[in-house]
Amino acid sequence: MKAAINKMIPLSVVDGPGCRTAVFVQGCNIACAYCHNPETQRLCNGCGICVSQCPAGALSLSGKNVIWDEAVCTQCDHCIRVCPNYASPKVRWMEAVDVWEQISKNIPFIQGITVSGGECGLYPEFITELFTLAGNAGLSCFLDSNGCVDFTKHPKLMAVTDKVMLDVKAWDSQVFHRLTGKDNSVVKKNLNYLAKVGKLYEVRLVCLDGESSSGPSEDKEVDMEDVIRGVAAEVNPYLEDFKLKLITFRNYGVRGKMENRKSPTQNQMEKLKELAVQCGFKEIQIV
Amino acid sequence: MNKILDIVTSKNLTYEQKVVALAHAAENSLEVLSIPERTHHYMDTGAICDLDEGHAPYRPRYIMPDYEKAVKNGCEFLQMEAPKDLDEVLQYLTILYRHVPSITSYPVYLGNIDKLIEPFLNGVTDEEAEKKLKLFLIYLDRTITDGFCHANLGPEETRAGRLILKLEKELQNAVPNLTLKYDKDITPDSYAELALYTSLYCANPAICNHKMHKDTYGDYGISSCYNILPIGGGSYTLARIVLPRLAAEAKGREQFLTELLPDCLSCMGDYMNERIRFLVEESNFFETSFLSTEGLISRDKFLAMFGVVGLAECTNMLMGDPQKTYGHNEEADDLAEQIMQVIADYAGSVKAVYSEVFDNHFALHAQVGIDSDHGITSGVRIPVGMEPELMYDHLRHSARFHKFFPTGCADIFSFDPTGRNNPAAMLDIVKGAFSLGDKYISFYASDSDLVRITGYLVKRSEMEKYYEGEAVLQNTVHLGGDNYRNAHLENRKVRGLQ
Ligand code: SF4
Ligand code: SF4
């Protein structure tokens, strides 16, 4: 089974417990306004726009397919910036066994692997195959997901997944829709399911600068306090079993209406943490 | 005489540094060692380097007193009884340290400091203990003005160890260096993680592979720049073979391996034996020092460290192909291993005098370099700025060469500060590296004021002062400042996020 792989980080210290290899798949089922790697959202449609703009001549077109010559590429990322389609020409379709062969070189330095994206939930069969191989080698297998694919419908994948890191981007369904273009009932369903079966590793909240959310209603993106209270109420019996990660929004890599948006202050982040403590979360981290 | 006047009138030496420099100049006015012509040749080319140890050895280079014994028995010469409480043990140790000589005149080894203190913490609250330990640590940093000084922790978790780690993070001291002896079957993960976390704030402690060192000679300590030595003994001397300077006179690979290198090794071995002979037979050190007469050290626990430096450059010179370099090419690494094998065979066969504790052989040591080295990489390390893209490849390479060095061989990694959020990840790296045979790893954060130079720590802020020509407290700031510039350490690859 193949998947479109955007990149692999052999040694990551920010994608779950311990040292892990992180695999980033290409393609996402939502489009967040604050996405900080928008070039992972869609698959290349072969429009060819990036090809002529590559300063190193690493790209060429063969029919509708872009060919990327990794040996010539200087990783300047210009292609990604000019792509009008939120895609990247530097993506490889890889078999699970080939991805595994790359990852296995990192043993004994890693304790597990994490599949992130894009959205990992778009490649359930590929990941099932990859996780089976990794699990047999004694590595822990994590998913990093936006929660918009219903995990209860993928029992085989869940059987080989140790834990999931779940984004909860907004609690109010209209706000969620405005931010991502999708409905968040599946996210809530996943939150419940994962907490109950003990597979929730952490819930991640991207925190925006609170000031702008008191502005006119179309600008009122996300009420973080609402998200924290919502999650706490929804999975109240399990609050000690997973981490809450409060992620400070930063505009690196962001494109579109939020690209100049300021980060929340440390003070605002601390206030959110206080609220989380009051709501009963045990392990809270601000990053 | 001009040199002496230069010392006397220097503007960037403290009074204390002048006294030590003057003593060194006096020692060097003697010629008591017998050195053959051929050895002189290698010393002139710099292929054999005596690290400026002085012309008439009158104390061992590194001394590792048995402090446990001293604390248990008291010390007659210093007129001190065995300490009975925390105040007494801290005072006892500070006094004792003051009387332990070394090549730099400062003690290079302060003991398994956690274990020395732990028994005296009974009935003392954390708060009280912290206050006292803090004063103790500050005293050490400000009076042992020499970054080569070293103390050890672990492998067991102790309350004293936890308190010291907490204080070090806060104090940001360069002295003493700390090393945690780590054994995954003894050291709890949480304690090792605390140590690694601390190291991303103050570059201390470094981590030593306890499993690989615990049987080298029984109880061991780590002193100075990662010298693994027997407790109750130490190292008489450390000379080093500077491989690229030797390779400069080679007439090809074969001649280097079969003629030049063996000849130089034998000159260096003879020279080291001559130093040991003078120290043991003529200097009267072991007859007169109270450390020796009271059994805190014993002559038969000393050995001599045979230093190797610049394997990378030597290999690259002999390869003569910029496409095939050490750390990046199999053929080059094979040649490097061949070179090391010749050195190891020599050390394993020739007799080192008065070296019973190491089976009467020289003990190989991956020498970390000195301030005046230009274009010579520490021991068997891969040159700064040339490190393999992947840290994993780097560590695998290290493991292949660490095996040759019983008395210490280390890697230093400049780490991305985000590692602070995930010390378990750093521990995974340590566990992986140690399982492959890496002997010693240290980390510092790429944004930290304290920087590990070749083994010792120096503050960037102090180096700035030295560059401006001011006198600075610690002598290692001079060495570090020059080394940081000459070896371009700011280019060390930052590990963590790729
Ligand atoms: S990153 Fe993109 S634009 Fe830059 S060299 Fe590589 S392929 Fe070309
Ligand atoms: S990567 Fe983007 S710009 Fe390049 S061909 Fe594909 S869709 Fe077009």
TrEMBL record, chain A:
Domain Radical SAM core: 14-282
Official protein name in the record: (4Fe-4S)-binding protein
Reaction it catalyzes: glycyl-[protein] + reduced [flavodoxin] + S-adenosyl-L-methionine = glycin-2-yl radical-[protein] + semiquinone [flavodoxin] + 5'-deoxyadenosine + L-methionine + H(+)
Keywords annotated in UniProt: 4Fe-4S, Iron, Iron-sulfur, Metal-binding, Oxidoreductase, S-adenosyl-L-methionine
Originating species: Lacrimispora celerecrescens
Domain 4Fe-4S ferredoxin-type positions: 32-64, 66-94
Names of the cofactor(s): [4Fe-4S] cluster
PROSITE patterns attached to this UniProt entry: 4FE4S_FER_1, 4FE4S_FER_2, RADICAL_ACTIVATING, RADICAL_SAM
GO MF term set: 4 iron, 4 sulfur cluster binding; metal ion binding; oxidoreductase activity
SUPFAM superfamilies, per the entry: 4Fe-4S ferredoxins
NCBIfam families: activase_YjjW (TIGR04041)
InterPro entries reported for this sequence: 4Fe4S_Fe-S-bd, 4Fe4S_Fe_S_CS, Aldolase_TIM, BssD/PflA/YjjW, Organic_radical-activating, Organic_radical_activase, Radical_activat_CS, rSAM
PANTHER family found in the cross-reference section: GLYCYL-RADICAL ENZYME ACTIVATING ENZYME YJJW-RELATED (PTHR30352:SF13), PYRUVATE FORMATE-LYASE-ACTIVATING ENZYME (PTHR30352)
Family membership noted in the UniProt record: Belongs to the organic radical-activating enzymes family.
CDD domains: Radical_SAM
TrEMBL record, chain B:
InterPro entries: Glycyl_radical_YjjI-like
Protein name: YjjI family glycine radical enzyme
Native source species: Lacrimispora celerecrescens
Entry-linked Pfam families: YjjI-like
